[in-house]
Design a protein that fits this description.
Length: 244
């Protein structure tokens, strides 16, 4: 794993790069972190994906807020910590800002000699799940496979709701819904499904018998079986599109 910085419109974005063993070039996957930020549990995801044969780029979407110590899920339970998270971090990691970053990240990937030419895959978790789907609709000529795990707010009345980008999406899409998740309830799932279906997007939305946040091993709701199912579905999607 290499730690690098990628120049964006608003600064330098610290990122982690993972390469498989052996000789490239390899297909690339851009990983959008969850709302707890970069920490060992998030890095494990990047490493696992790379071991399956992918060049992985994992950027720190909170870089606009400055350096920070690794956080954990207590940030959501503690009112003061949650206030800091929302005001110092989430306020600047908006879809518009992250999509601006994504252009720089995609350009960086395209310039790497050990990245396979052509489209890339994206995956994201919680907040990152929204970013992954938004990237597919914002850069349809670059993102050809898109996964989104225990995401929230994918089909709301907000003007930047990802489901509104459905007509632009060309990627194959897989969305994994948590069984208990007020940020992505069944009515929102139906709304997203209808938008993707109407737009002719090849997609699947699957409900997991797990709570929001189940993939990351440091989460109180971590579910080992569902986390493995996540890797199975992620690799099935990416292998079919990027290695097929």
């Amino acid at each position: 794993m290499d730690r690098i910085e990628i120049q964006t419109r608003d600064g330098r974005c610290p990122s982690h790069v993972y390469r498989p063993t052996g000789d490239g070039p390899w297909p690339a996957i851009l990983v959008f972190m969850d709302g707890v930020g970069i920490r060992p549990a998030m890095l494990e995801v990047g490493e696992r994906i790379a071991k399956h044969g992918y060049f992985v780029l994992l950027p720190d979407l909170f870089y606009r807020s400055g350096p920070y110590a690794p956080m954990d899920h207590t940030v959501f339970a503690d009112p003061e910590k949650r206030k800091v998270l929302m005001e110092k971090f989430f306020a600047f990691a908006t879809p518009a800002n992250v999509m601006s970053d994504t252009r720089a990240l995609l350009d960086w990937l395209a310039a790497q000699p050990d990245v396979k030419k052509g489209g890339i895959g994206t995956t994201g978790y919680c907040m990152g799940g929204l970013m992954s789907l938004t990237a597919a609709g914002t850069y349809p000529d670059r993102v050809v496979a898109c996964a989104s795990y225990h995401p929230g707010r994918l089909a709301t009345d907000a003007p930047d709701s990802p489901h509104l980008l459905a007509p632009a999406i060309r990627a194959r899409v897989y969305v994994a819904q948590a069984s208990e998740d007020p940020s992505f309830p069944d009515d929102m799932k139906v709304r997203l499904d209808e938008a993707l279906t109407k737009a002719g997007v090849e997609h699947e939305i699957e409900k997991y018998p797990a709570k929001h946040g189940w993939v990351l091993p440091d989460a109180p709701v971590y579910d080992a079986a569902a986390a493995e199912r996540h890797y199975e579905t992620l690799f099935a999607l990416m292998d079919a599109v990027l290695k097929g």
